[in-house]
Queue: 2 jobs
Job 1
Amino acid sequence: MQDVKEFRPTIVAFCCNWCSYAGADLAGSSRLVYPADVKIIRVPCSCRVNPLFILRAFQRGADGVIMAGCHPGDCHYTSGNYFARRRMTLLFSMLDYLGIERERTRVEWISAAEGAKFAKTMNEFVATVTALGENKRLEDLRCKK
Amino acid sequence: MQRIGVFICHCGTNIAATVDVKAVAEALSHEPGVVFSTDYQYMCSESGQTLMREAIREHKLTGVVVCSCSPRMHEATFRKAAEKEGLNPYMVEIANIREQVSWIHKDMAEATEKAVILGRAAIAKVHLNKPLKAGESPVTKRALVIGGGIAGIQTALDIAEAGFEVDIVEKQPTIGGKMAQIDKTFPTLDCAACILTPKMVDVAQNEKIKIFSYSEVESVKGFVGNFKVEIRKKARYVDEDKCTGCGLCTEKCPQKKVPNEFNMGFDTRRAVYIPFAQAVPKVATIDANNCTMMKTGKCGLCAKLCTAGAIDYKQQDQIVEREYGAIVAATGFNPLKPDKFNELGYSTCQDVVTSLELERLMNAAGPTAGTLLRPSDKTHPHTIVFVQCVGSRCDVENERGKSYCSKICCMYTAKHAMLIREKYPDTDVYVFYIDVRTPGKNFDEFYRRAVEQYGVHYIKGQVGKVVEENGTLKVQASDLLSGEQLHIDADLVVLATAVEPDKSARSIATMLTASMDTNDFFTEAHAKLRPVESPTAGIFLSGVCQGPKDIPETVSQASAAAAKVIGLLAKDKLTCNPCVANSNEMLCNGCSSCEKVCPYGAITYSDKEFRGPNRTTLIRRVATVNEAVCQGCGACTVACPSGAMDLKGFSNRQIMAEVDAICKM
Amino acid sequence: MQEMMKNRAYALLENGTVDRVLGWTRGEFAYDMTPAVFRNADEVKNGFVYNDFCAANLSKYLVKECRAGGKILVFLKPCDTYSFNQLLAEHRIKRDMIYVVGIECFGKADVEKIKEMGIEGITGITAKDGIYTVSTIYGDKAIKPADVMAERCLACKSKKHVVYDELIGNEGEVVEDCNRFDMVAKLEAMTPDERYEFWRGELSRCIRCNACRNICPACTCEQCIFDNPNSGVSQKAAVNSFEENMFHIIRAFHVAGRCTDCGECSRVCPQNIPLHLLNRKFIKDVNTFYGDYQAGEDPTAKPPLGKYEKNDIEPGEAGGAKE
Amino acid sequence: MSHNKNAAAVEQILRSSGVDVRKCMRCGKCTATCPAFDEMEYHPHQFVYMVEKGQIDKLTASPSIWRCLSCFACMERCPRQVEPAKLIEAVRLSVIREKGANHLKPEDIPAMLDEDLPQQAIASAFRKYSK
């Protein structure tokens, strides 16, 4: 188990290719620092994010999962993020209902121009999840080495 | 099992300074399936690509992972290189260790660890990658230009010149845009109308160009090469085909008191009007809000006068559906209304005007026939103060203005100052500036002429207060170089107001699914390398809608956009994105959940025969994806409960493999 | 009631309207009424049973029956008709292959409740004049139906059929104040820790027998992702705490906006896990966030996850439960 | 600014004022606006510039800090949200605090009152002359 070492969370960020992933690129090219705990997975659109992926991440030991997409109305595919918004609203509400800390999940709309927002969001989210500590309620212990 | 090659790019020192590239190559070489792992200074260079190609050949690689910059940068480069070596391009994946690692992390150990994890995730994905083949879709050989200002005009003319059809949609009754309102142009001082109106006529006469004036884009469907656009032709109550533009109605209409927007409200027009003499199309428009006939049903004078019988009070808005292969946004700008700057007195003093208003006050076709007179008492102003950067270069938190430099104000103010001093040598002209910005061919020379030849007083400082006292504008300003506070009695104050994108741009961007920045300027696909394209395929940008620009720049960008459009329309077929949805018919329930979330109508259903148990056959309703129409968003894959619908290149298993690789600690 | 139904079945088989009948028959135990297909009048005569223990929702069986061809008579209780409509909306069944006879329902008995009363060794149950007579190997016992009515029937949302070709008995009304969300609201009012403990207590009993999924009229996938070795999430058994959580969350999500709240999942759960509380949470959230929606009420309505509003609530704003 | 010998004083002023002097684009609108211009040795834009340059001693010695009316016109008009008035106030406070005493006490007020004096001026005076 964890020793006295400072707790560093594992955070999975699903970013849509057109806005948020580009926002992350902009954060990078602007040299805006955010913790290395965040690992980005590129998806074509926020509507590609299956609740299964989010649960899978938690099951495999993620401490927080964030989904970032284009601002509502700006979806590259017109409506993808609207559907994603409904799905995530319901999923997160369910996780909350099961007693899983609400702060471990987050949805943020980040445009390609918002590198600063990307970095700020990730910094905040890492701080929040770090404060919550290790995710115990959602992980599958078999997958832990 | 795949045979995977891993290539770690140093990107000079961009990556190598923060990530221990050798350690990453070493760590990833032990991953399952990795048969080759190396690092190199510049993977995207010719020799880097050669290195990759040789490795593909020598090690019989079936998959490639490049740990380098963002896939948005060089994914295509590496995929092309792999393809040349006979490897399916979609067997190449990128781990972004520059934007997501080296540029944002400082600690080498931490950055290296993250780079390894991202590399592992990409390897895990490649294990599940399958060779993909791109389909093709046809191209509608017609372009739509939204906006009929100089940007839209130039783009349309260039596209038409190449032999393709172009439609211009302009919301005003005439094309011409802002340039039509301008008096002279810098730095040559030729008359704007003299260079613009011939182009407008060219547009009108070009057989390939169709103008939808007084029209707006209502909806946009489809995708690159195959857009379907609904255009709302607003009722102008005049039959465009019948109206000869004789102008009789516009002279006789009894409703004379409508503020003339073309002259910035300095004079009036009739309820039926043609915005200006050289309007294209030269067709009258009835302004229903002011027309007595439309409001009360009594009058009808214009209909009686019109010998062509063009007046039609019962005309309705009309929706026209047209198909296009490419769309150009040329929605232009408006000057910021400076009414939030109370201290500058725009809302309270008639003689405080914006620069565009000054253009009309100086234009020979303007309300004063070109004689510069104060709006308040119609006298000659003798002392004129220009204020630069009104609403430009404000802090992002400042709600009164914009954070950007509007770029054109320094030059047009020099032009105004020069023209005034030329025409009225007895006038004192002061220009209060923060910086004078004149990068451009012959621009600084132009500004120096205003100072040296025309004696314009350029003062480094700003105006803090303008108040009117007995018809004089008391201007309080700072002169930073002399350390003085100046008090000038001025007759006219001209505000160089910021440019801002036209209000309609936001909703048009939404329809086009083109992205915008926080200032509502359209975002380009790449700030340096693809400046006239939107990230959305098939959408191009022309003029100020992309960022502040002067006329020469607008025209060059307009032609550049046209060149891009021509390049697209010249193709008979487009290669589609092969990362599209596909339905596994064995798993499909035919429940229609996917169809409901598809924005493109790419999913259809049919009854198909399947083999049932015990040699029976059964008929099931299953989904089929039209791969030419599908754009690969993946909405359907999540709507599908059975997992029958999956996305090529971003499959459920691929994404879960990435998740697993990232979470495996 | 049973006789009226049998008579209609005879008549419809006789005149060729249908070629078989989907109803219930006696299973292993006296209280175990199980769905069955009857191919002729004789089978109906000998096997067809209808009583207060015929709880099973027959809609789902029509998916298979529709593939067999011919035309089938089905008896549907009011709540079953919602499932029927939902299956129609999803093209899982064919309306013209089915003859629906709606049957009046006063609520079904839950044999577990009888057992809880300490009644054991049940050999038969008869109903007469509003009293159940339970025969056991220890003698007969009389009980009141109201005392043993199934939980889901106590919170019945509608006694009105949303679809039928003909009706036996009287048509009921939609129950406006059915209080079916009371328990969900109670859970929402708890602290996250309390909720976590509650659900851990419930879901940890799951043995992944898949009964809930197999009975669910919304779970009619050709192959469930949890059974598909290619899906990457197929699981053979629950090994620890999150396995079953994930299964139940995903199952609830897959039926979100489609679940008609028929309650079959909880009825068949051998571990008595209140699975319907997961589905009801989604139904309640959908109603709260996106406006009232009852799956199966109108087969032409767009499901809540298949549409959107531009000003939908943001995931972060959806309070749902107390912090 | 660490190389500056007045680094500590600058740091103190920046911290107590909350002003980011680097945001200034030297447009001079603050000074153009300042109604006390003629009274002041150093003007609002110079405060910003001089704090950035570390010339705190000149500012604390200048009568300018007592002449500023605290009318906040410079703050209101600044396009870059630099807020010179806050900076001037911070310099002023650093002087008052050093001397350890208020320059204006409530009991002094009645003697100074005059009919035309706006109440705002009294509030402003306290702001200027008291800790």
Job 2
Amino acid sequence: MNGYWSDIFTGSKSLVTGLLITAREFFKPVVTEQYPYEVPTMTPLFRGHIELIGNAETGEPNCVVCGMCQRACPSQCISLDGKKAEGGKGKVLTRYILDFTKCSLCGLCVESCNFNALRFSKVYNLAGFDKNDFVMDMLKRLEEQNRCKQ
Amino acid sequence: MEIQEQTRIALAELFPAITTVDAPPVVEGGSQDEAPPRAPGVLVTDFAGCGSHLDVLCRPDQVVDVARIMDGQGFFLEAVSGVDWIDRHQLEVIYDYNRLGGDHCRVMVRTCLPRTEPVVPTISGVFPAADWHERETFDFYGIQFQGHPNPIRILLPEDADFHPLLKDFMP
Amino acid sequence: MTVPIQLRHDETFVLNLGPQHPATHGVLRVKLTMDGEYIVKAEPVLGYVHRMHEKMAEGGTFVQFMPNTARMDYLHALAYNHGYALVVEKAAGIEVPERAEYIRVITVELNRIASHLLWWAAFLLDLGGFTPLLYAFDDREKIIDLLERITGSRLTYSYMRFGGVCNDIDDEFITGTRDFIKRLRGRLPRLYHDLVTHNIILIKRIKDIGFITAEQCRRYGATGPVARGSGINYDIRKNEPYSVYPEFDFDVPVFEECDSMARYMVRLQEIEQSMRIIEQALDKLPDGPIMGKAPKMLKPEAGYYYSAVETARGSLGHRLVCDGGKNPYKLKLRSPTFSNLSLYGEVAEGMLLADALAFMGSLDLVIPEIDR
Amino acid sequence: METSIWRALLYLVGIMAFAGLNAAYLGWCERKGAARVQRRIGPCEAGWAGLAQPLCDGLKLLSKQLVVPNGVDGIIFRVAPVLAMIPAITSMVVIPFSANIEARAMELSVLLIFALASLSMIAVLLGGWASGNKYAIISSARAVSQNLAYEIPMLVTVITVVMISGSMNLREIALDQQGGFWHWNIFRLENGHFLTMWVSFIIFFICSVAETNRAPFDMAEAESELVAGFMTEYGSMGFGLFMMGEYLNIVVGACLTATLFFGGWDCPFGLTPGVWWFLIKIYILIFTFIWIRWTYPRTQIYRLLNLSWKILIPFSLANLLITAALIKVF
């Protein structure tokens, strides 16, 4: 029988403490971040999709079309090609397409690039209605960045 | 480390003809191809190097006896995995046994099966854990486990007719 | 105390605890043959989210499989990175510098706390308590922000490389971790134990439900909190020490009651133990490089390699077979919940539907890890 | 004036408006209360502080098509939600909102309310059975056993109140408690009644929570086990009517508790009795319903029945005997 009475007393005591805790939480300030009005700032090492780094003055991509990132990528989402430079030394980048639908943000491409030509962008709010929105042209993006820098 | 000695002696009974004559040359994890195909037997390997204390190679029909010995010693079955040695036309089944609590000893038991008709007796009678693992190995490699209570696929769709982890499987 | 009744085996109906059901937390289907509200036979059906990680491992080089490891158990992704890095380092004989080992332990333990917090929230959601979820996610958000600072991603990390880690931790991370631990220590007794653990409704709901004896654990290969809730003192960090775990003193919570309450208490005490480990690791953090020297294109020696790591759900094993080439010849991933779930059929017999779901919640299942 | 058509029409519109507004805005209160307990904001987009949210939900539910699964008894499937609404609204006829605001003062109004309360259990049973879904059948079986188990202690506690107040008419019971909170049943000092009144209040409150399938006892609509219980197959207004029925049952439960124990429309200091005191008491009680829901996990069916048969019924019977003895002795 004592299990019966102890159950009732300890039980009701625990129920009351539970109510008091939620009551105290009821009057505390709100914890959540109201997204469309308060926008989160990304940490410096945040991994958005990769983007090309432009040379400080000329704005040309540092990329020398060596293709290391293309081989390093586990899901083959980088496709790039270039043509011989006029001055005859090295290559110039003509096309750099990133298929972000297959990218798993592992960072192997950025690590394999020895010419400091790739970095992670801080873009986090990517939403689109069509898969092709995520096949991105990095060169065009670099030109836009240069244009809005002027 | 007396548990290792205990299990080694217990397992050695299974291979009376070979080990008493002379322990096979201790192959330090060397690649299996050049060294003469190892005779069935118990081999002590260093744990730091390859992660298991004992490496047992046994014939397919001895698998259930090994499982019974392991059950007697208080081991539990950690994993059953298949390997497809396509150049040697062999399918290999690896049973990993480990101790649950107490001092640590991991045993790897390997059997080689001909690639044409890979059949090995099931050990789900001794270790029910093997029930799902063996279904998965059948699912990926097509290895038939005789006497398995429910030998259907577990991860792939029921009507799949291919075994994806075989080396000659082209999607 | 499941009421001993005689199950009428002839008047049963089959209830599909769907692939799409609120309590399965993923795409798991359990075919329940029911007699009224009692379960006569429970048979989990798997494979709904199977992606064939093992074939992907054989397709790419060693380092290209690292992002896949995080996609299996996204709640404790860093332990999977750690397990895979350990087995390849063992195969290729790569040395990991001291500081990198410490950073690995700190991040894995932080991730373990986050995984246990999420399990606790989801478990209470299964039992009908909605509010504790928000409190647990509030704490977990702090951990995820900390880990995002150094790894770059929030859930599926590919932070570890063979021979170390790819980013170093800075002082802001260290102070943030210490603040987080102080804050969680303040909230644990009040918000977690007084509101929930001592609550009579919860005690009645999970006490004496779902008995798993130690022998059943051994025969089915259940490890982790499920085994430690049945009195088996088996924690890989203690039994098969790897990385720098021997340098920390922490104890392994083991409960003898073998019921869901025991598994619940094991996980909550593991949160406290992980905090102890993190504090000791932060105090003893050495300086030095974070990346050992590892060849660009790994070609480990042919042979059989195995490594086991303690994740939040049990022992994660990697069976690696190399043939000397640059791709893993065979990589078998031994997932803990695959074996933990295999005993569900035997234990759930004769249970009520509500108890069977409370029992499934106490097993802490992550379905993509079962299906691989 | 007593039997004129205008009075009946006025009360009809009044009660329907009271029921409709309450059903809609209790949903809003519940979501805001739950949000505050969980330290988030709750609906705040639709209209100022989310006040238009119930309107939007109502419109959304109205615009959806009621999908009737085939091979199911269509008539019962459509009648069940309406049957869930009827008892809740009709029992508002006899609730004394204030001295002169009461639709129909009947002699046996307590009996009428409890007769209608058991009617809503039938709605849950029909809804579950008619949707032909295995989860719904399990949930309706649970709902019947739960409502049955909690009706008995509820009635026994009401008998103790009726014995003390001396009449079955809710209006008499409320009139008997007028004049300041020391006259209320719960604090009735004469011949030690307040002890037994506290016990019967607690039992009555637990039973009303269980009767309306709420929070720790929501076995019928157990989201995480039975998907949505008996409401699984219901689409638009079927689901809407069931939700309104549940909220109206809460309002009726709160009105009953206020009238029986907290002195109906009486002002705590005996100065300005009126309908606003009655509404304040109801909304405080409804807030405790919401507060309880967002604090506790759900019980399991056996514990729930044990609680009623082994604890609540013995206690309420003992309470009845003690009250009878106290009345006899003093």
